[in-house]
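Hi W., the magnesium ion complex you wanted:
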Amino acid sequence: MKLRVEDMAIAFDGKQILNGVNFQVQEGEFVAIIGPSGCGKSTILNILAGVLACDRGNVFVDDQLITSISSHFAYMPQSDLLLPWKTILQNVTLYGSVHNDKKKAEERALKEFKVFGLDGYQYAYPHQLSGGMRQRAAFLRTALCSADILLLDEPFGALDVITRNEMQDWLLNLRKELGCTTLLVTHDIDEALYLADRILILSKSPATISEEISVAGIQKTRDWLFSQGELKKEIYQRLKGEQNA
Ligand SMILES: Nc1ncnc2c1ncn2[C@@H]1O[C@H](COP(=O)(O)OP(=O)(O)OP(=O)(O)O)[C@@H](O)[C@H]1O
Ligand SMILES: [Mg+2]
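Structure:
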């Protein structure tokens, strides 16, 4: 088992937000977390990334207990901004330059620009890129962390529907190449169904995992997604039920 979360709990200012969250992610598996707004989805990723300490519970990677910031995780937070005064190359190698050799980080990054649809924009500044390209650059920065588990918090949330669909197609393909274990937080039922092997539905806070839906082993296409009306309805009703509970 790649990642195991046991009994994760946290309260802020006396209000219980997470209360016994348990789940596992297998090596190479893509798991999506959906749940009502404010239920604690980003908080789970913040705890895994080591930004926050939980009050109770344990996190294991490869059966080893994780107690602080761990190089196993690469985190793309909900509001991942590129630094406007740095070029795209400088932005995507930011973490590599801090932790390793700057030249090596740049060499590695330059190889990936084409795969990430950013070829020719190495020395451009963020304002010269479209919204989708900026997201891909933020994504490349996360992917270059050499971690084995990607934590993505609504990576395409700010995009229009066409660009978002393009990014999802791109991620579905990229996934085959990277083979990373991925935990994705999203509001978008279609996105969860299209990208994930398994969907975890969080209850409203104090949150626990209320439902788990497997959509693994399916050749995912847009046509498949369009034909999943019943499943989408079921997930929507569960989410709505949680929101109104
Ligand atoms: N560092 C913090 N200090 C105090 N309260 C916090 C902190 N982080 C999160 N919270 C609170 O915990 C709750 C859950 O926040 P979180 O950001 O995890 O929700 P979310 O499910 O990601 O929401 P959204 O879907 O809107 O992104 C919210 O009420 C938020 O105000
Ligand atoms: Mg959030």
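The chain has two domains: 1-70+151-160+181-245, 73-146.

W.
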